[in-house]
Amino acid sequence: WLFAELAERSGGAVPAQPVDELIAVLVREGVLIDALAPAISPNPRASGRRVVLAISGAIAAVDAPVLVRGLHALGCEVRIALTKTAQRFVAIAALDALTHHRVWRGIWQRDERAPVPHINLAEWAELVIVWPASATTISRIAAGDCSDLVSAVVTATRAPVIVAPSMNDAMLGSPAVQTNLDALRTQGRWIVHGTLGVEVAHRPEDRVLMFGPAAPASAIVDIARHVLAQFPRPALPEGAAAWEQLWSTTPLDQLPWTHDPIDAPLAAALASHATPGARLLDLGTGTGIVAIAAAKLGYRVIATEISATALGRARGAAPELPILFALDDVTCSQLDGAFDVIADRGVLHCLPPAHRSAWAVTITSRCAPGGHVLVVVHQGRELSTHPITAAELAALLPELTVVATTPTTLSGGPALLVALQHSR
């Protein structure tokens, strides 16, 4: 077909050799995907990687289940965001069944684990794929227009974004769409050019081959594997030196926990235990989010960190508050005294499981009789941490009793607030 098309357009026969050489180069460079290539096998490096599939209102959306299955075969966990018009082309129940996750359809579609869906999805994602991307969605993303869920997720995420345009070739070639695609390239988005296909919006008898339909699901999966390989999931630091290096060399916008506002369940728990003169220990204060909130409630706060750089940033966040900041390692703590409340928002699940018993020694020895311990830990495979259940936490702290568990979120992932009380 290709040779016939070239001959018709050029007005004469086209030599096969230069065309074959060009195709070979394009396949080698990844511009073209070999349709006869062997099926993609699971990739250990993609195992558990978190992908948001953002679907807009183009007819290619009907093949979304094929793409979901391809991403699952790659080893990825998939969650789906839809524009309003995309809902005309997909079976939401089928996508829900395939992903085993809620299909998100709007900015205001909230639940207790995702109170702000576009932010929660944006922070959760390690890769966002906008497929198919309609001209309207491309325009919104290029302009930073967050009037729908998909454009808001793309604008908010720090993850790499793949955009696969899908539209009539006349629309694709228009100056407006090309300007928007140029803007996306400038923003660092990965643009996956469409393929040769028919415009199925036309009547069957009027359909002709054109360049514009979205790249097939198999090509998107292959590109997703390539992009994820370029953005490997970082390993958790271990030990004071490694954490100090992370804090001192990494921009804050690349450390997701540094800009997490205090979650509502933890804020409510802090408020419920805020009695006059109560002492609070904030473990792993980071940028001081919990320490600052507690000090404003009237607690006498000691905030600890394993990194001097992090401690300096926390100290500078609210210099007017009477917070005592201390460099300390929870696994070999040098602190003295007892505390009415101990807050751990993210330290425990960052520790290797072998270090949990040392953490428990510090918690037990520093919690005052009748005192409370508030621990926020990830649930499931989130952000390379080491999740722990409420039952495991109770076994780790036999002198304390679990009095409440509340689902929450942390750094975009599902988490659990476990409230314990010292039985002494």
CATH C-level category of the largest domain: Alpha Beta
Helix content percent band: 25-40%
What sequence of helices (H) and strands (E) makes up the elements? HHEHEHHEHHEHHEEEHHHEHEHEEHEHEE
Largest sheet: 7 strands, mixed
CATH 4th-level superfamily of the largest domain: Flavin prenyltransferase-like
Number of strand segments: 14
Instruction: Give the distance, in angstroms, between the N- and C-terminal Cα atoms.
Output: 82 Å
How many DSSP helices?
16
The coarse overall form would be elongated
The CATH architecture of the largest domain: 3-Layer(aba) Sandwich
Strand order of the largest sheet: 10-9-8-11-12-14-13
| Number of domain modules | 2
What does the radius of gyration come to? 26 Å
Low-pLDDT runs? 35-42
What structural class do the secondary elements suggest?
A: alpha/beta
What is the arithmetic mean of pLDDT? Answer: 87
Task: Return the CATH topology of the largest domain.
Answer: Rossmann fold
Task: Report the sheet-strand fraction.
Answer: 15-25%
